[in-house]
């Protein structure tokens, strides 16, 4: 493991009874990156994270965290964690929870700094059990960052957050990465991965089916989308060779194509009054759907 | 200051700190590690004292029942029966020590396992023993409060002439006496779900109160089975501490209580490490 690799799974397999959760998975988290792990339900995302955190042991292969076994408490002192489903002590106030979790780390932020950083200062003296679902996620995020971790594991961090709280969390995550932290993010919100991730891994059936930057993942799908206001009939355009599908939305035609340039030229030639032309590459969501469908 | 600015402000300050220091500490100084254990214990006790469903019954029920039986119902009779008065006092006192340990571990550990809190704590760099030690200290704190209120009730309304030495011995036995019940609770909590644990813990709690003979003298046919319950051994130690006659040797009672604590804790810790 080199210095830039903070966490690593090498040839890891894990079974639960007859179910194969991970099947020879290789995965590494590099210094200073936001790494998104995507995959449909049951793909093995949570199992992979739990192996990296030392919560489970692999049946085969190895898991390393900062060059050590993840079960070594010294390795975990450099890690912050936000889990998807957890009920914290209902009776403790948010500041008390931060004070407690910060005490596990050698060089944490002060509770008040964490409350400011995560915009949870208004929740400071409120018992955790009295918070709304979104506020609980914010408090859990504050706990994840309070230890000044080099590596953050965030499992569906923005579920239940309103738009403003989500934007603030994204901003905090970007700032953390800018300051040298690394983040492993699992999310079902593909726009979240698209907006934040430096690198993406797509898992399906316990295997890595694609990895790379968001652009590289999107490039798996060659399809592009053309949208324009035109008087051309949908049926006429649908008959063109590079066109895969066409739909009309009032004045606009929405066209999926394999070769955008050829179709655009032909559209402009066929309708001189064509306007509001837009060409868009396939998004991460489409690439994800296509990749995971291929893997099933 | 809006949220983004605050983030930048705090982060910039942090970056500066990091660049000044060549390397952040990853090892924990002993004093800080000790502080972690203290905070875990303090917050565990605070949260349980704040939980009305836990604090009120375990802190008030033993002393309320003691006052009902030893003062209101049988006060006159017990005033002329010092041995009986001691029996009632030790019975409710042991009952007060049992509850926080059994339920604080049995029900709470099962729920925390089910609700993911224990998993989160295992993922965080919490010192491995801090979780269990905190709960044990919480049970001891409850034991101290129960003991103090029981002694106060016994000295004032119960007319039980306890000396300072007796009070001190009772408190010491109660504090350590909480441990076997913690171990029993832990054993239940690591093997059951949050839904099942309350029922099992209640059955064991009630069975132990009645079958250990701490509340009323058992018929001869049942006396032999009382020794299987840790409450019986704690009750006998309390009799000795108060200068009353007791059954069996003190060392045997201590050995049984210590054995139950060590055996059940070891089995539970092993299971927690393997299964979580």
Description:
- The complex is a heterodimer of chains A (296) and B (276).
- By secondary structure, chain A is an alpha/beta fold.
- Chain A folds into 2 domains: 5-218, Rossmann fold (3-Layer(aba) Sandwich); 224-295, Alpha-Beta Plaits.
- Chain A has helices at 45-52, 73-76, 94-102, 111-117, 133-145, 163-178, 190-196, 214-218, 234-238, 260-270, 284-295; strands at 5-16, 19-30, 34-38, 60-65, 79-82, 151-155, 182-186, 199-204, 207-212, 224-229, 243-249, 252-257, 275-281.
- Chain B is an all-alpha fold and 276 residues long.
- Chain B has helices at 3-20, 30-50, 52-73, 75-79, 82-114, 117-123, 130-156, 164-189, 197-211, 220-223, 230-241, 250-274.
- Chain B starts with a helix and ends with a helix.
- Classes of the chains: A alpha/beta (296), B mainly alpha (276).
- Chains A and B meet through helix 2, helix 3, helix 4 and helix 6 of A and helix 1, helix 2 and helix 6 of B.
Features:
heterodimer; A: about 300 residues; alpha/beta; Rossmann fold; Alpha-Beta Plaits; 2 domains; 6-stranded mixed beta sheet; 4-stranded antiparallel beta sheet; 11 helices; about 30% strand; B: about 280 residues; mainly alpha; 12 helices; about 80% helix; about 0% strand; disordered N terminus
Let me know the largest β-sheet of chain A: 6 strands, mixed
The N- to C-terminal Cα distance of chain A equals: 32 Å
Structure annotation, total helices of chain B: 12
Count of helical stretches of chain A? 11
Overall spatial form of chain A:
globular
Over all CA atoms, what is the radius of gyration of chain B? 23 Å
> How far is the N terminus from the C terminus of chain B?
43 Å
Overall mean pLDDT score of chain A?
89
Outline the low-pLDDT stretches of chain B: 1-24
* Global structural class of chain B: mainly alpha
Strand content of chain B: under 5%
Regions of chain A with pLDDT < 50 over 5+ consecutive residues? none
Major pleated sheet of chain B:
none
By CATH reckoning, the class of the largest domain in chain A would read: Alpha Beta
């Amino acid at each position: 493991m080199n210095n830039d690799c903070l966490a690593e799974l090498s040839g890891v397999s894990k079974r639960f009874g007859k179910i194969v959760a991970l099947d020879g998975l290789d995965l590494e988290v590099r210094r200073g990156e936001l790494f998104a792990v995507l995959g449909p339900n049951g793909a093995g995302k949570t199992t992979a994270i739990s192996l990296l955190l030392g919560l489970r042991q692999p049946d085969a292969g190895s898991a390393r965290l900062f060059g050590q076994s993840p079960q070594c408490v010294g390795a975990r002192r450099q890690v912050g964690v936000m889990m998807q489903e957890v009920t914290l002590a209902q009776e403790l106030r948010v500041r008390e929870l931060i004070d407690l979790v910060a005490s596990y780390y050698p060089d944490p932020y002060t509770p008040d700094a964490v409350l400011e950083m995560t915009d949870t200062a208004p929740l400071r003296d409120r018992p955790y059990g009295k918070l709304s679902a979104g506020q609980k996620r914010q408090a859990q995020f504050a706990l994840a960052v309070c230890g000044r971790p080099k590596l953050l594991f965030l499992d569906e961090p923005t579920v239940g957050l309103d738009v403003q709280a989500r934007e603030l969390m994204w901003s905090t995550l970007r700032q953390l990465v800018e300051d040298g932290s690394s983040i492993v993010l699992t999310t079902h919100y593909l726009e979240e991965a698209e907006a934040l991730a430096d690198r993406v891994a797509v898992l399906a059936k316990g295997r890595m089916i694609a990895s790379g930057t968001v652009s590289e993942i999107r490039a798996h799908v060659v399809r592009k989308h053309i949208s324009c206001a035109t008087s051309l009939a949908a049926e006429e355009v649908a008959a063109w060779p590079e066109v895969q599908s066409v739909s009309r939305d009032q004045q606009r035609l929405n066209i999926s194509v394999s070769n955008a340039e050829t179709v655009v030229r032909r559209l402009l030639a066929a309708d001189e009054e064509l306007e509001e032309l837009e060409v868009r590459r396939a998004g991460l969501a489409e690439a994800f759907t296509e990749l995971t469908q291929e893997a099933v | 200051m809006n949220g983004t600015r605050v983030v930048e402000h705090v982060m910039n300050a942090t970056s500066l700190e990091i660049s000044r220091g060549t390397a952040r500490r990853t090892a924990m100084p002993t004093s800080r590690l000790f502080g972690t254990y203290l905070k875990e214990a303090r917050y565990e006790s605070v949260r349980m004292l704040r939980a009305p469903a836990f604090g009120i019954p375990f802190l008030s029920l033993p002393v309320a029942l003691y006052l009902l039986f030893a003062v209101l119902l049988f006060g006159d009779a017990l005033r002329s029966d010092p041995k009986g008065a001691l029996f009632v006092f030790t019975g409710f006192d042991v009952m007060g020590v049992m509850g926080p340990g059994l339920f604080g571990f049995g029900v709470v550990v099962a729920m925390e396992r089910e609700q993911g809190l224990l998993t989160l704590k295992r993922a965080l760099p919490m010192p491995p023993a801090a979780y269990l030690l905190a709960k044990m200290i919480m049970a001891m704190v409850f034991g101290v409060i129960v003991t103090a209120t029981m002694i106060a009730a016994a000295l004032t309304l119960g007319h039980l002439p306890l000396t300072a030495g007796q009070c001190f011995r009772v408190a010491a036995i109660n504090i350590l006496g909480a441990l076997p019940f913690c171990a029993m609770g832990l054993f239940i909590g690591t093997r059951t779900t949050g839904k099942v644990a309350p029922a099992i813990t209640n059955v064991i709690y009630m069975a132990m109160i009645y079958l250990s003979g701490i509340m009323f003298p058992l018929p001869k046919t049942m006396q032999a089975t009382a020794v299987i319950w840790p409450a019986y051994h704690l009750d006998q130690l309390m009799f000795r501490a108060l200068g009353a006659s007791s059954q069996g040797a003190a060392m045997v009672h201590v050995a049984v209580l210590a054995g139950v604590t060590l055996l059940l804790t070891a089995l539970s810790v092993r299971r927690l490490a393997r299964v979580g």
